[in-house]
Amino acid sequence: MKAGDFLLSIGIVGSQQFIDEISKYYRLYPSFRIVSYTYTSPGELDALIECAVKECNFLMFSGIIPYHYAKKILIHFPIGSSYLSFNENMVALSLLSIYYHRSLTLSEVSIDLPRREFLEGVLSEAGIAESASFVKEYPWIYDSLEERELSIEEFVTYHSALYEDKKTALALTSIHAVYDQLQERGIPSMFMIQSVPTIKGGLEKAITLAELNQSKNSQVAAVCFKNIGNEQITLFAKSMQAKVTSSDSGLQLVLSNRGVLQTLILNQKLAGLFNEMTTIYGKISFGIGYGYTVKEAESHAITALEFAEKKPVERAVYLLDEEKKLTGPLFQNEERYALKNEDPLVKKLSGELKMSSKNLSRFLYFLQVHDFRPFSSHELADYFTISRRSAERMIKKLLDQQLLQVAGEEQPYEQGRPRSLYQAGSKLKGLR
């Protein structure tokens, strides 16, 4: 069954115990298709996730451990995800249960958890002076760059050895696979308690994030370029399962949706398509725009193309999203800028200069694209597509406000007058 067969499909990934608990609340969301994916050890997750990303629009994981294993696959798909966070409440409920039902002290319990601080926080806030003697943590799991594997056997051995040496009477674990193996070995053990509010809250959060993610993926995506033959554009659109249209400005546009384009970006297929076109046409620039309407996506794609054309490289691709955040050049050392500048200082300066915030923001990004190097009025005129006289008027306004300073001159031709060069003053550099 495909994700497109339903309005929204959400996959829940966890152990059988977790699925048994959370599935009780699926009925609260009848307008969603919620699918359970169970595993017994982290090693099974690769195949499970490969299947889930094809069937669902969003994935929720039972905790940080399955999410840690899945993230290397998730980065290749435009699918949203969340996980149930470990918290101090789980530790507090588990310790209360152990004390009330088993009458054990902390020194008689071996504990594993992501960070020791969760336990120390509970003891400190409860005013308990006693400290735990046997604690094993795995804080590296929160490091997004860490690709280490969690050794289930290491944790099982840790708890088992302490119990067999009669140093402990119970193992409290935060890892389902460890709990299952301890049970098989006959070691008294308990899995950290996940409260009903925590589970229901996690599911509700996943539903909300899934809706937001779906809204984004269904946005219009437009790709525009100049000086490309119609045949090549048609082939490009066909490979994206998209359609070709013309913009009001006369540019050829390829229209698709954000979800499709994000997939092509993540799996590098878009880079391959652009490389093929570069091989045929030489230096080439592309602009990608996202928006809630075709008009908005088209406008953003054209703006992104303007930035791409300023890059002196063989192939430059820029992307402008619905929040006017510019990313690029894609597939290289990309950076991100916010074209929608709501900085109060920008608004104040635009008023003093009698220049629109939009034009001042564009000027700031002109400086950024040129790495704040000295520039001439000719370069500014080319960037804004205005006359040299208009560019000089803009520069004069900025000089009068001491936002620019004269950096020197250049002599581009043997004959003729030298051109003045300008550079940003400290106030403008502070707006980077």
Briefly summarize what is shown:
Helix content is 45%, strand content 20%.
Would you give an account of this structure?
The chain has 17 helices and 17 strands. Helix 4 packs across helix 5, helix 6 packs across helix 7 and helix 15 crosses helix 16. It has four domains: 100 residues, Rossmann fold, CATH 3.40.50.2300; 106 residues, PrpR receptor domain-like (Rossmann fold); 121 residues, Alpha-Beta Plaits (2-Layer Sandwich), CATH 3.30.70; 86 residues, Winged helix-like DNA-binding domain superfamily/Winged helix DNA-binding domain (Arc Repressor Mutant, subunit A, Orthogonal Bundle). The chain is α/β, with parallel strands linked by helices. The two termini are 48 Å apart. It is elongated and about 90 Å long. The strands form four sheets. Strands 10-11-9-12-13-14-15 form a seven-stranded mixed sheet. It has a four-stranded parallel sheet with strand order 2-1-3-4, sandwiched between helices. It has a four-stranded parallel sheet with strand order 6-5-7-8, with helices on both faces.
Key terms for this structure?
alpha/beta; Rossmann fold; Alpha-Beta Plaits; 4 domains; 17 helices; elongated; WH_DNA-bd_sf; Transcriptional regulator
